[in-house]
Amino acid sequence: MIPFLDLKQVNAVYREEMLAAASRVIDSGWYIQGEEVKIFEKSFADYCGTKYCIGVANGLDALILVLRAWKELGKLKEGDEVIVPANTYIASILAITENRLKPVLVEPDENSFNLCPKKLKSAITSKTKVILAVHLYGQLANMPEIMAIAHEFDLLVLEDSAQAHGAKISGQKAGNWGHASGFSFYPGKNLGALGDAGAITTNDDELAKTLRALGNYGSHKKYENLYQGVNSRLDELQAALLSVKLKYLDAEMQRRREVAIAYANGIHNPLIHLPISKRSSLVNLDSHVFHLFVVRTKNRSVLQQHLLDSGIQTVIHYPIPPHKQQAYKDLAELTLELTVAIHNEVLSLPISPVMSDDQVKIVINACNDFKG
Ligand SMILES: *Cc1c(COP(=O)(O)O)cnc(C)c1O
Asked: Residue 191: CB within 6 Å of ligand 1?
C-alpha cells in the first residue's frame, strides 16, 4: 500500500538529530518559555523574512489570537466582517466566529482554489475590516493583488499559512505579506512537530507585544495581567524538534515539487483535472509548496476506490464545506455553487518528501488506467 502520508518515515530521517534535541530539553530542566523557543522563533522569523515570530500552541490559536489582539488594540470590534474563502479548512472560520466577528464567505478562484481578488473586492462592505487570505493546499494566494485591495480599502490582512511554509511570490514568503500570519506545525503539515504547535509572524511591533501577552494569560510581566488572556504557548520540546526540521524544510519542499511535476507530466487522463498544467515543469513553482496535490474529478468515489484497489491511499480535503457543517447552520442557506462542486470533486493524491520514484510511477499509471 502506498500510504497517503507516511509520517513515521518522514520523521525517521531525522531520528538521531531529534533524539539529541529531545535529550537536550529533558536534561535542561526547563520546559516552557526558554531558550529553545527563542531560538526557533528567531530562525522561523528569519526564514519567513519577518521581524517577529511568536510561538503558540497550535495553528487555530495563531489565527484566533491575531484577531483577538486586533480587538484589544481597538482595530476590530464584535460584528465586524472578515472576508474568507468559502472552501477553506474549518479552522479559518472558527478563528473568526470565536472572536464574534462575522465570516463573509466568498467563492474561490476556480483554478487556484484560493481567494479571487475580483470576488473578494465585490464582497467588501462598510463593515469589512479584515481579509483572511488562506494559502490552500500550499499555494500562496494572489497576495500582490490582495494587498493592493487591502490598501485601497484600508483593510487588515491575516494570512492563514498553515499549509504554505516557504511558498513565495517574487521572493516574498507566506507569512510576510499580510499584517500578520498564522502557521500550524501540526504533525502532517509541511513543517510538522511531534504534537500540536503553531506560530504567528508579523512585522508589527505593537501587535507582537500584544500577542506575547495574550498567549501568556494576558501578562506582559509575571503576575501582572493587562488582558484576560489565554494559555497558548509553544513548548521547549516541540521548538527543539522544529528547529531540527526547519533546516531540512527547503530540501523536502524540493522533493514535493519533483513529485508534483512528475504527476503533472505523467497523468494524462481527461477524467482527472490537475491542479497545475503540464507546462509547470518549466515555469517557476516558487508559489506552491505542495502540502497537498489535489485533483478534481466528476466521479470521485469511483476514482478513490480504483486507486485503493491499486494499492494507493488518498484523502479528501475536504468532504464538507464550512457552510454545510452542523456547527454553522446559520450559513447553510448561502449559495456557493463552486465551493460545493469543489468539495464534491476534490481528491488528494499521496505526496510527501519520502515518496520514491517507483511509488510516484504507480500512482501515475493507476490514474491513467482510470476509466470512470
Ligand atoms: C491545519 C490548519 C489550521 C489549523 O492548524 P492546527 O495547528 O491544526 O490548529 C488552520 N488553517 C488551515 C488552512 C489548516 O490547514
From this structure: no
